[in-house]
Amino acid sequence: MAKLFSNNPLFVDLFYGVVVGSAIASLSLKDLDKMPYQIVWVLAVLEDWYLYYRHVLDEEEAKVSFSFKSLVIEFSILVSWFLGFQALKEENQENHFFFFFGTFYVIKVLAGVSFYAKHRQLLSKRMLYDSLWIIMPLTAWSLARWGGRAGWPFSKQFWVVGCVTTCVLGAWWILITHAPPRRPTSVEG
Question: Could you list the residue range(s) of the whole structural domain that residue 109 is in?
């Protein structure tokens, strides 16, 4: 399969721009009670975009290999994110948010596993750090299953997921900053 080598992944930027832009355009003042959740979820995808540029793209090599698989992974990440946004926006669909939240992070983890396998770092320190992300979908799916049964309102469940996400992100940043893993080696083909 033909691959594109570039340090300017335009299709990734296009996907993020279209999906996030359409979500932001659909924010409405008539749903002020839902807007904080939507804004936090927009910040989550912007953090994902930032991490992509900060830790996936290799500036030293000035190129990253893109393929049809890359396209599918990026598209899947953004579709799951957008469906989570829609669940926050639509009436009586908030609990579906936890499913899409979990799916978003599971696809990110699977994309990382694929990336590390390709760069021969499957059991590396870098992948160990990124495995922390799996805590977030486990938390969301647990809350979706048992939080509602316990009578917790959606807002309480959402902020629990938000706090767990903040803790995981903080732990990840501390690890990546104070004990940085080695950069992946470039693999073409």
Answer: 4-178
